Amino acid sequence: MFKSVKLLFPRLSRHYTAKSKRVVLGQDTTKIKNYEPKLSGAHQNRVYVWGFQETGALGLQTNIKKSQERYTEMVHHPTRLQFSNNNDITDITAGYGFTAYAVNRSDGETLFGSGINTDCQLGMQFKPKKKETTNLDVIIYPTAIKLPREAGDTDEGMKIRCMSSGRAHLVVVTQNGTVFTLGNNSYGQCGRPIIEDECYNGSAVIHRIPQVDICGEQDEIVSVECGQDHTMFLTKQGKVYTCGWGADGQTGQGNYLSAGDITLIAGDIEKERIVRIASASDCVLALNEHGDVFGWGNSEYGQLDDSPDAEMQINSPRALQLTKGIGKVKDVAAGGSFCMALNDQGLVYTWGYGILGFGPFVEQTSKPQHLLPPLFGRNDFSNATTVVSIGCGVFHMGAINSDGDLFMWGKNRFGHLGLGHKKDQFFPFKTAINGKVVKVAYGVDHTIALCQPHI
Fold first, then answer.
1. Which of 34, 102, 290, 421 has the smallest number of CB atoms closer than 10 Å to its CB?
2. Transmembrane segments in this chain: where (predicted)?
3. Comparing C-alpha atoms, which of 206, 194, 242, 200 is closest to residue 221?
């Protein structure tokens, strides 16, 4: 019986002539269509925004009435900013309810902003009607911030080198080496004398400081970092200068006083070349060229010292012992009650108090613990993927991997994780952005991402 089945169903085979084989195996590659994606914009960079929108910080609305409607309160998914389609945006910063953009434009305007402007942190912005000269407290679409110019200031020189924003102040450094500070100066965070009972609403004060007055002629400012109410400047030689609120020691000046004078700080970093400083609130982390971590400021949750008799506020830079075992560190970030570090192996470490990325049952650890690489996109099909930079806001964290993907976790009350909901996220989760993420600005209730198109 089995033999008859074999006869009924002979084994099929396919035969090719020698010429046919050559046609199949030697495909003409010149006839294969080369797909070139069409970019939907003339500019290389694009910006995506999400989170709390009622402050105007997202800059999405152009209609005041629509911006006040309830259904526009939050944007839960990353949304492309129309302003970035029409302008070449080179840098971003997110404050508490406001955003600033560095741009390259032919008309010479280099700085734009949107969001809360109650303390004139976005400059003087008047209502459009000529009869009304009242300053705008809320700006719903990115608007030019007029930086005061002096004789000799060129459009090229007024382009933005670096910038940062705090709770209600904005600090900008231009290419010609000038520092501009705007907004609230109650604690000296704008680098000028504190004026008691100074009114910031409707104020036209934009303080201008020559770079040479801060770090001298032999050095230059390469980065600025604003905490909640203090400001820090990092120079090319690796020196750190600070001013502002020092109640938790976050200025690192060896005291707990507020200071309007921008001062060089010492402590354990006096002879070090610092390459990175980070602070989203009142705790500060600094990184030297060798990958060693230093810190000062608020340490109520053991962020800077996990010893039994540790101080809760540290007013002078101190070399951290708790990061000694995690290898050479190449990036750091400091939130309200937690800290982050990224080592040269691409491992992300978190510690302190909050949603640290280890699930809903781990909310505090006094020692840095690393998050597993698969949480950031590494798998069998992409085993070379690694984290390249980290950052955080006061209550949430983020990491960018080598593929340009952004992963976020933490508190999500205002939808600022961009995951489509308001639930807290206990593990790193990929945010859906149609672009390769280059930089992220973490506000207190909104997030801004500077991206490049996938090619």
1. 34
2. none
3. 242
